């Protein structure tokens, strides 16, 4: 991936994905209007890759922002790369298309550029995003991810999405799909948590060997939503080593964290609804970390995961018990 000449990577289906994406997830207390404003700012700043999901419940607002920016001539639809995700309550093959169509309707778009399976494990279908039993435990169910994948392949054939991929899959789950009899399309990407504390070097190596792009979420550490993240989790951007390297390059620790991943051939999602930080997050193409910098940041890896999704730990498709 030559960052100087092209800010995109070619996927295994021939489509281009911008290497830096704007993340739109926000916890419940953030007003939905924030996603609308921030997405417009992101496009004005230069972001062309927008990462969203059915689960985020703000696709109306994000879609409106995209349509406004197309209408005012800032971008054309084909300049944008929009990702949505099939939520875990829609993994039964007969529900996959319905989830994607709901997203398209909210967005007011005719197609998305990428549609991915949000997690390998499924939850009970229905209107609740997080279906729970009487004792408050999330209700999981078992759906064969190969069948979910086949349904996603049909969505691509129908023109509802240009590319298809997965998220939160370990290498064995990727292999399940890659080795599936009658496979029509390989996953183009695997979107996983990835940052200096969890650098995913083995999974990255595996994905590269299969021509699958690794896309990083929580690249700047994580939002602190107590529903998903332990409150005693470390703050990545307070890491002294990142601060030292940032100072040397006259950059922010966040810019260093993003640049580190880009130089490893990872596509990076940067999430912020703060205008100043959205601008900063896009300024990662005009400086370079040295091989020494890269080595020092590599040494920060401690396989620390912000988003453990431990409620699904007993599910046979729970992805994080494998080393990678």
TrEMBL record:
Keywords: NADP, Oxidoreductase. GO terms for molecular function: oxidoreductase activity. Residues 20-301 form the NADP-dependent oxidoreductase domain. The record marks 85 as: Lowers pKa of active site Tyr. Substrate binds at residue 118. The keyword NADP applies. The active site is at 56 (proton donor). SUPFAM superfamilies: NAD(P)-linked oxidoreductase (SSF51430). Pfam families: Aldo_ket_red. Belongs to the aldo/keto reductase family. PANTHER family: ALDO/KETO REDUCTASE (PTHR11732). This is Aldo-keto reductase family 1 member C15.
